[in-house]
Write a structure and sequence with these properties.
The longest helix is centred in the C-terminal third of the chain and has 34 residues, at 292-325. Helices cover 52% and strands 13% of the residues. It folds into two domains: 2-230 and 328-336, Spore Coat Polysaccharide Biosynthesis Protein SpsA, Chain A; 250-325, no CATH class. The protein is elongated. It has helices at residues 2-16, 18-21, 41-55, 72-82, 97-107, 127-135, 152-170, 186-189, 202-208, 232-250, 255-283, 292-325; strands at 28-34, 59-65, 86-91, 112-115, 140-144, 182-185, 213-217, 332-336. Strand 2 (59-65), helix 4 (72-82) and strand 3 form a beta-alpha-beta unit. Strands 7-5-6-4-1-2-3-8 form an eight-stranded mixed sheet, with helices on both faces. It is built from twelve helices and eight strands.
């Protein structure tokens, strides 16, 4: 018994010191997607670089320019040429935040991968808080903007309800899935396949493979320069993506439960309708077959079910296509300072 307890203590101590004892060329990779942030990125680079120097671990900073239409790529190119710890990946066009994060993951060589936005709203010094949790043995440390400085009705209210719904549906109890500031063990993150707009659900994907997740309160700043790339439409996209996430997590290996369940529901309504037709015909002598509202009701039910199933089937086919062809969801125009071979 004493031997088992001593073994557990040694394992815990070993896990806690993992990121400080391994002799890797790079231990922390900080990935920052960029899209039209010319007013922010120079200052963001200075802040992230300063924070990483304080942490005193071998690091790299990876900027992924997602087809910016301003001078972001030129500014980042100058930064990368002056600092060899900075990698720059420039897309040929705008492929979206998920593709940018995927590209950063593909080029990262650190044992720990940290994500954050390039708009100065995340506090780079809080990276230390996330790394501390990874050092304690967690696989994922997710930032939580407890005091969020965004517009109340257009950003905070929709985000609050979206996070509540996501937590209820997926079972991953996080307050702020939308916070970009997150840290992951690379061996966990590289097993997650990212397509479409699924970047906000990375912790959910990680939980599926048994990753341990903790939420860390972090600071949040109001945007000073540039315009936000998010709006109310983003909330609806999140809810639509949630349907796919729920299907992949609960029904990907047993789709008959979903298809059969919807079929039973539709058959239930069909049975109720049949009973009403008979009752109204016998008691009130009403001919229901010609009632347009009765026909429209069933038409809408069938159309909704058909569209939902078509959407899910399309998502599965897209994933099969990407996995079988090994096609990348992005195309790179230029890469700077990517000379270190991956190990």
């Amino acid at each position: 018994m004493a031997l088992a307890e001593n073994k557990k203590k040694v394992q815990k101590k070993t896990v806690k010191k993992t990121i400080r004892t391994k002799k890797a060329a790079v231990q922390v990779s900080v990935i920052l997607p960029v899209y039209n942030e010319e007013e922010n990125i120079a200052l963001q680079y200075e802040k992230v670089s300063s924070s990483m120097k304080k942490i005193a671990l071998p690091y790299e900073i990876i900027f992924v320019d997602d087809g910016s239409q301003d001078s972001s790529a030129k500014i980042l190119s100058a930064i990368a040429l002056a600092d060899k710890s900075v990698k720059l990946i420039v897309f040929r066009r705008n492929f979206g935040q998920t593709a940018a994060m995927r590209a950063g993951i593909d080029h990262a060589i650190g044992e720990i991968i940290v994500f954050m936005d390039s708009d100065l709203q995340n506090e780079s010094d809080d990276i230390q808080l996330l790394l501390d949790k990874i050092e304690e043995g967690y696989d994922v440390a997710a930032g939580w903007r407890k005091k969020r400085h965004d517009k109340f009705f257009s950003r905070r209210v929709p985000s609050f309800f979206a996070n509540k719904i996501i937590a209820w549906v997926t079972g991953v109890k996080l307050h702020d899935l939308g916070c970009s500031l997150k840290a992951f063990r690379a061996d966990v993150l590289k097993k997650v396949k990212l397509y479409g707009e699924m970047h906000r659900f990375i912790p959910v994907h990680a939980s599926w493979i048994g990753a341990s997740i903790i939420e860390v309160p972090v600071r949040h700043h109001a945007r000073k320069f540039g315009k936000s790339k998010y709006g109310m439409i983003r909330t609806f996209k999140v809810l639509l993506d949630l349907i796919t996430i729920k299907f992949l997590g609960s029904f990907s290996t047993k789709p008959i439960y979903l298809y059969g369940g919807l079929g039973i529901v539709i058959m239930f309504f069909a049975g109720i309708s049949a009973i009403l037709v008979v009752v109204m015909k016998i008691l009130y002598r009403v001919n229901m077959t010609g009632n347009p509202f009765f026909l429209l009701f069933f038409l809408f039910v069938i159309l909704s079910a058909t569209l939902a199933l078509m959407g899910i089937q399309t998502e599965i086919l897209i994933r099969i296509y990407h996995e079988s062809t090994h096609r990348s969801p992005y195309y790179v125009k230029e890469v700077v300072n990517d000379s270190v071979k991956k190990v």
